[in-house]
Each structure stands twice: as C-alpha cells, then as structure tokens.
Amino acid sequence: MRLGEATSHEVRTAATMMAGDDGTLSPIVLIPVGSTEQHGPHLPLNTDTLVAEEIAGRALHRTDGLMLGPTISVSASGEHAGFPGTLSIGLEVMTQVAVELGRSADWAAGVVFVNGHGGNRAAIDAAIETLRYERRNVMSWWPRWPRRSDGGPPDLHAGRIETSLMLAIDPGLVRLELAVAGPDTPLERLLPDLRAHGVKYVSTSGVLGDPEGASGAEGERFVNDFVADLIHEIERWRPIDPTPSG
Question: What pTM, to 2 d.p., does this model score?
C-alpha cells in the first residue's frame, strides 16, 4: 500500500489485516529519504531521491506488512552549496523533520527511514536516538556502498555506482555523454577538505568518483542487493507484540 493514495479508513483496515499470526505488528511505514543536490554534469538533482524511492518501492513486494510513506526530498545538503540547483534545509531542521515525522506515526507499528543521501547521516542518527529514547519503534537503513577494488578514486558521489543505479532506474535522466571523473585523490587525504569546505572545494565538477564503466545491468544488481539487505534488516528488527494471540 502507498500511504498517500489511501484513505484513513483504508489504513486502519489494512493495519488490522496486516498483523501477523506470529505476533508481528503492522504496518511498518517506509520513508524514502533523498535530496535535491548536484550530482555532477550527468546525473539529475533528484538522484538520491529516486534511488531511495526505488529501493523502498521494491521492498513492498518482497515481504508483508509494509506501507510506502511520503518521500523527504529536500534534506541536509549543505556540503553541495555553490552548485546551482542544490536545495538544503540543514542538519538541525532535518533532524527535527525526522523526529516529528516519527512521532506523528504512532498509529503505525514502526517507521523505517530508507536513506539515499549520506549527508543526512548525522541528522537521521540523532533523530533515531531521540525517537528510541521516547520508546518509539524506528529504524534507519543505509545502502552498503561497494568498495572499489581496482585502485580507482573513491566512489563517493556521482561516480560509477550512482551512475549505474540511475541507468537501471531511469536511464533517460542520465546524460552519460557529459560524465567526467572526479579527483583521483586517496580517501584519507580527500575527507578533511571535503568535511571542512564542501564538495566544490575538492571537485569543481561535483563528482567524487569515476562514472566510467557504469551500466544498467550493474545498477540492477546494486538495486537488488540493496533491497535484499533492507528486507533482511527489517525482518531482524520487525516489532513483535509481547503478548501475541495464539
């Protein structure tokens, strides 16, 4: 079920029908968390959003008791300041958005933030800590980014992985002919300047990685792996009624 397309009555009915005989509680609401920020000259500003939505949307068909909630599409993207098109609400506001969203979902068994933008990690982690302190069932999931084994530049942003993901999800949005490689700098040397000054200081193109070799087939494998990992983590965490019937 997609939450935004349902009525309140339908959500109440679905919650009753989704509850498992084994005591598992439902529904669990998946919240895709993306961004609106530069992704180099070849990928759209909503890359992180589309990736998070794709993963969450596919997860609905892989296990029971899930609802797809609304996407947070403008988030903490301050590190991409200076690139036209980037929008950001900052870490503090992003934290509070996630906290209030989690609080408002007390009608659900739990909330899972399905994250597509690493720049939100501090905000989401802080929100999860607050919500769990308040004894709410919340979880955040982050894709496990494959590490490069060929000695190439670190694939942090708009490189081969994200380009492959977008070629799988919506290839019409990829301007592959405009793709360029980012700085060929060891990660340990890149991160201090990146954290202190932002992406534009270390990469005028906005790319941190190398899109060379990206393909839709590779992207499809990444998506499938991410969805499988998300489902695995949800099943490990899924809230259980301490006094289930039967």
Answer: 0.92
